Amino acid sequence: MSIYLHFRAVAESQIRDDHTWLAAFMFEAWENDDAEYAAGIAHSINKGWDAVNDLYAAADALYADADEPWNLPIYGGRPVSHSADADPSDPPLMFLEPSGVSQAARFLTTVSFDELWNAVGAKFGALGWTREEHLDHHRDLQEFYGQAASAGHAVVKAVWA
Fold it and tell me: 4-14, pLDDT tens digit by residue?
């Protein structure tokens, strides 16, 4: 079974703060993921997003005086609550405002992947996670958040199972 964390950059003015509407928006985006990924407005991570978050959590110890929160790229944002009439099968959603997107982009460009990997790589290797796949996720997230921040976009996140 595959489970994905799906990211979609979008102008804040183009979305509604309504779970049912936002779930439909994200479903349509998911259906067009290949084209949206190529356009730089979408990204997804299959199963391993929690491990990517764990990699970034190492920044908390390495950069104790850092201004940028390390949790923004994966779990940053606020949950979008289901309305009373929402379909219970709709995915969990999070919304990261443009200011948070900019902070995430800054974090991803200033943090040293090598330092993070040196701090947690042995633990990850024991679990079967490779440096290369985490580096690929990191580079993809750098590009995605960098483009979203440059455009002044918000990011909506959905979990698809």
Answer: 999 999 999 99
